[in-house]
Amino acid sequence: xxxxxxxxxxxxxxxxxxxxxxxxxxxxxxxxxxxxxxxxxxxxxxxxxxxxxxxxxxxxxxxxxxxxxxxxxxxxxxxxxxxxxxxxxxxxxxxxxxxxxxxxxxxxxxxxxxxxxxxxxxxxxxxxxxxxxxxxxxxxxxxxxxxxxxxxxxxxxxxxxxxxxxxxxxxxxxxxxxxxxxxxxxxxxxxxxxxxxxxxxxxxxxxxxxxxxxxxxxxxxxxxxxxxxxxxxxxxxxxxxxxxxxxxxxxxxxxxxxxxxxxxxxxxxxxxxxxxxxxxxxxxxxxxxxxxxxxxxxxxxxxxxxxxxxxxxxxxxxxxxxxxxx
Length: 326
Hints:
alpha+beta, Arc Repressor Mutant, subunit A, SH3 type barrels, 4 domains, six-stranded antiparallel sheet, four-stranded antiparallel sheet
């Protein structure tokens, strides 16, 4: 091995050692670095190690040196700070879109950005209410393919499944192969959705990414977006990603304490008006579907639909249908 190659190997080894075993609370001494290099079969001296560390600093690696009765070194600024890594680990743990197996793999990779001592703090005990992990282990590959199709303006094909009463996968339309032109991906309520033009439906619709099977990128150009299609308006108005009803303005009469719930769902740009000291009204653009009516019903009468009359009648009819008839 040439002197140049040996020096490069020594510098990289020191860098890896500092990244893995040092941090602000756990600096390493020069003797520890020399002992590590010796175990790796690399000859070094205090002088060569000091020169190597200086070269690491010159190349942009934040190696901090504590001077005192002995010199101590640690990696200062990293790609991710420990609080950032904790947040990412919690997000991966909580995500229902990522399978349990893939979550474990991602968390293991994230710990590689921390020191050995910090990694112990990434063993998080996060409680997630109603924690349901996705079963589709290939969803993250599907997301990557969809982004590629959007960027390259290409069509894709795939099959789509749901679950029957026996909790078994059931492919839609006898394993129909959908031809789809993806326009964008949306993260909603801890789920990934893809929005685009479906040849079968003849319109813009959305699909849940984790229900997509056997996706393939084609060489066919994507169907251009309809001229009147506004993706921001679409994602805002399709309530919880359930289509099937015409978009319309719906007026809600709400008790004052429900303002936070209305804003959480529709944002601050909606039209609101004070009715009296107890109630306010809000006009929202929605796809008036059973999902929307179910959300209104969940407030136990503290929120009412007052207009239009068609929405009032449909809501009342659904409420009656929900009561089992003898």
